[in-house]
C-alpha cells in the first residue's frame, strides 16, 4: 500500500468511527504494540500557503502495522484523514 500525502484535509477516520476499531474499506486500526516501525510525518505549508505533508508518500506492506506520528511544523492547524481516495476527495470538497 502507498499512502499519498495530499493537502491536509481532516482529522479522525472519515467513516465515522472517530477512533473506534470497526473495519474500514482501507483496513482496521492495528495494535500499537505490534507496530513494526514509526513513520514520522511533518505537516507544513508550502511557499504558496498550501498545506502539505513531508514526506509526500509512504510505502507500507500489506498486513504491516505501522505507527504514524504527525508533527505540525506549520503556522496553521493541520488535519489528517485516512480513507479511500474517493472518501477523502468527498471530504475535501465539503471543506472547500
Biggest β-sheet strands, sense, barrel: 3 strands, mixed
Number of domain modules? 1
Shape: globular
- Give the beta-strand count: 5
Estimate the strand proportion.
25-35%
- Give Rg in angstroms: 13 Å
Give the gist of this structure.
The protein has one helix at residues 85-95; strands spanning 2-4, 37-45, 51-54, 57-59, 66-72. The protein is of the alpha+beta class and 96 residues long. The strands form 2 sheets. It has a 3-stranded mixed beta sheet with strand order 3-2-5, with no helix packed on it. A two-stranded antiparallel sheet has the order 1-4.
List the helices and strands and how they pair.
Layout: E1 2-4, E2 37-45, E3 51-54, E4 57-59, E5 66-72, H1 85-95
Parallel strand pairs: 2-5
Antiparallel strand pairs: 1-4, 2-3
Amino acid at each position: 500500500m502507498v499512502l499519498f500525502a495530499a493537502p491536509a484535509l481532516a482529522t479522525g477516520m472519515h467513516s465515522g468511527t472517530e477512533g473506534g476499531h470497526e473495519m474500514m474499506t482501507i483496513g482496521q486500526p492495528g495494535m500499537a504494540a505490534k507496530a513494526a516501525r514509526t513513520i514520522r510525518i511533518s505537516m507544513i505549508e508550502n511557499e504558496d500557503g498550501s498545506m502539505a505533508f513531508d514526506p509526500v508518500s509512504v510505502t507500507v506492506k500489506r498486513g504491516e502495522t505501522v505507527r504514524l506520528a504527525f508533527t505540525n511544523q506549520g503556522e496553521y492547524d493541520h488535519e489528517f484523514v485516512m480513507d479511500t481516495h474517493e472518501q477523502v476527495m468527498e471530504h475535501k470538497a465539503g471543506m472547500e
